[in-house]
Amino acid sequence: MFKLHRDFPIESYNQDGLVSMHNHDFMADERFASAYQRGVCAAGKDYNWHWRVHIGLWAARNAVKRIGDFVECGVNAGFLSSSIMHDLDWDSQGKTFYLLDTFSGIDLKHVTQGELNDGIADKNSALIRSGFYLTSSESARKNFSQWKNIKIIEGVIPDTLRHVDANQISFLHIDLNCAPPEIAAIDYFWDRLVPGAIVLLDDYAYFGFHHQKVAMDNFAQSRGVPIASLPTGQGLIVKG
């Protein structure tokens, strides 16, 4: 046991596949705790995603300073996006948050053969049965009814991307759990990302999601941009 500033006692961080002895006193920050709890409220459960949400809030706090709207591809119950909107007092920002999801799990017509071979269909079914994946948008719409400056777009990516009418985007969060729609999303929005825009990839380096990493690495190489691989399992791109 050791103590960080603010007399906050911390042992090693050990959650969500990440073990670290490094400073993580952001967990004692009241602003962070309030935003994180709003995410828990949206999901109905605490998944111990503290460091992942910390990265998401960092990204959003930087992106909100730039011109452009926010887009999330893969909303589900809205854990991260609810945390962000609570943290930024969203309706005061003069931006729109576009929220895209099937609200029914993964559409298996849009996965690779490699993902099928690795059991993505069984995993998808299990997540639906467990209640982790929503099976309708009703609860998500109720959750986001707190805010006015949002647009919920229900359906399968890439079919729904055209409904995002933002010409400038400063924050893009991609969490679709399979490669083809993720690449479709980042490719579709790339030219709308403003200089300095932040792209946060939820599963880029996460264990068991290597197909997404390979696909995103190929995309990044074609655009000449680097991806930061984070120990949270996320990936981070800052558009130059």
What does this structure look like?
The chain is of the alpha/beta class. The protein is built from 8 helices and 11 strands. It has helices spanning 30-43, 50-63, 79-87, 113-117, 120-130, 138-144, 179-189, 210-223, and strands spanning 2-4, 8-10, 13-15, 18-20, 69-73, 97-101, 150-154, 169-174, 193-201, 228-229, 235-238. The strands form 3 sheets. It has a 7-stranded mixed β-sheet with strand order 7-6-5-8-9-11-10, with helices on both faces. A two-stranded antiparallel ribbon has the order 1-2. Helix 1 (30-43) runs antiparallel to helix 3 (79-87) and helix 2 (50-63) packs across helix 3 (79-87). It is globular. The termini are far apart.
In short:
The chain has about 240 residues and is of the alpha/beta class. The chain has helices at about 30-45, 50-65, 80-85, 115, 120-130, 140-145, 180-190, 210-225, and strands at about 1-5, 10, 15, 20, 70-75, 95-100, 150-155, 170-175, 195-200, 230, 235-240.
Question: What are the key terms here?
Answer:
240 residues; alpha/beta; seven-stranded mixed beta sheet; two-stranded antiparallel ribbon; 11 strands; globular; disordered N terminus
Secondary-structure blueprint of this entry?
Blueprint: E1 2-4, E2 8-10, E3 13-15, E4 18-20, H1 30-43, H2 50-63, E5 69-73, H3 79-87, E6 97-101, H4 113-117, H5 120-130, H6 138-144, E7 150-154, E8 169-174, H7 179-189, E9 193-201, H8 210-223, E10 228-229, E11 235-238
Parallel strand pairs: 5-6, 5-8, 6-7, 8-9
Antiparallel strand pairs: 1-2, 3-4, 9-11, 10-11
Helix pairs in contact: 1-3, 2-3, 7-8
